Amino acid sequence: MKKLPSTSQIFIDLAPEFGAEVILDDSYGYAGLIKFPNGIKKYFKYNHLDVNTLGSSEIARDKDYAALFLSKFGYHTIQGDTFYSKEWAEHIGSNKTIDKAYAYAEKIGYPVFVKPNNSGLGFGVALAYSKEELRIALKEALIYDKIVIVQKAYLGMHDFRIVVFKGEIVCAYKKTPLHIAGDGKKTVQELFDQKKQKLKESGRGMSVELEDYRIQFELKRNKLDNNSILETGQDICLLPNANMSQGADGIDVTEDMSQKWKEWAVQVARDMNLVLCGIDVLVKNDIKGEVGEHVILEVNHSPGFQHYATLGDMAQKRVQTLYRDIFTYLAHE
Questions:
Q1: What is the structure's pLDDT at 324?
Q2: Which pLDDT value is given to residue 124?
Q3: Is the domain of 327 the same as that of 267?
Q4: 69-82 pLDDT tens trace
């Protein structure tokens, strides 16, 4: 068996402490069953745990529905609309086909974000500055889902993830999209390969390649290509979204988080009826003081921690503590 996914390995390590048994799938170890001494059985699949209820998880997983209900509670959500593949539009009797997305983008103004409604890990998320880029982004997004969201782009804001478990803050970290910095010698390709190798050495992977259409969008806008040599200090953002599985950098800001922001995050989790969640929020300034200008990107019902755990000893300790608390929770639910 290959190296186990982090969640599976942590559960294997924790099981003896609880007198529990963990049974994994035979091929990859991505799915498993936890058998507790009291007869309780809990399943998991990668980061998906038997913690949140199914209904709440499904709403959170659906970006459009999640934004709808969050807005009904008075939260600031991103302006956007959904559009459907031709087949799905016919099935549900809607005229909001993908071709209607162009007029909507013109209405709210470019640039716009394009996202598959139910996809995760940043797959299919693109920033389009023109109709042609939008056409490509919509086509790619449809690979991941039959429902696609077109959203207003809130540029110049800071991307944070805040994790809540059982009404308590677990951690918070600031994310910066994948970028490379020039040294006056290396090409874009060489700098990208160097970045990827450093992430691998730190225990992180990166599920994106330089030929990704979104990266090529960014290079073209900066009049660059894979063979261009960046000047010393020239910093280029390669992806518009700050997803750590796609090379984003992270900074642990848990200790800097104000009580006001903690209360805000806990209330979001309660209103979404989620025991465990990761709240992705764009913030104008920071999360140190009052809850200032912000918009909620999404609420993740099954947050992963393998990338966050690489941010330092304290981050790793928080993850270990969280999974022990989750194990305890599962044993009694």
A1: 95
A2: 85
A3: yes
A4: 999 999 999 999 99
- Report how far apart, in Å, the C-alpha atoms of 70 and of each of 108, 116, 270, 284, 303 are: 21, 19, 11, 19, 18
SS3 45: strand
Q: Which residues of the chain have pLDDT under 50?
A: none
d(CA 82, CA 105): 11
Selection from 95, 81, 112, 121 nearest residue 204 by Cα: 121
- For residues 298, 94, 56, 300, the Cα torsion angle rounded to the nearest 10 degrees is -20
Distance, in Å, from the CA atom of 187 to the CA atom of 180, rounded to the nearest integer, reads 10
| Residues 135-158 as b or e (16 or more Cβ within 10 Å = b) | ebbbebbbebbbbbbbbbbbeebb
Specify the pTM. 0.92
- pLDDT at position 159: 96
Q: Per the structure block, which two tokens stand in for 260?
A: 């006001």
Token duo for residue 254: 């848990």
- Count H helices, E strands: the chain? 10, 15
Residue 290 burial (CB < 10 Å; 0-12/13-18/19+)? exposed
**193 and 321 together in one domain:** no
List, as one string, the DSSP characters of 255-290: GG--HHHHHHHHHHHHHTT-SEEEEEEEESS-SSSS
Residues 284 and 169 placed together within one structural domain of the fold: yes
What's the confidence (pLDDT) of residue 333? 67
**DSSP symbols for 155-209:** TTPEEEEEEEETTEEEEEEEEE--EEE--SSSBHHHHHHHHHHHHHHTT------
Same-domain status, 183 and 302 = no
141, 114 in Cβ contact below 8 A? Answer: yes
Instruction: Give the tens place of pLDDT for each residue, 247-293.
Output: 889 999 999 999 999 999 999 999 999 999 999 999 999 999 999 99
Q: Terminus-to-terminus CA distance in the chain, angstroms?
A: 31
pLDDT above 70 as % of the chain: 98
The answer on 244 and 99 residing in a single domain is no
Its domain, for residue 15, covers 1-46
Region for residue 328 given its phi and psi (left: phi exceeds 0; alpha: psi -120 to 50; beta: otherwise): alpha
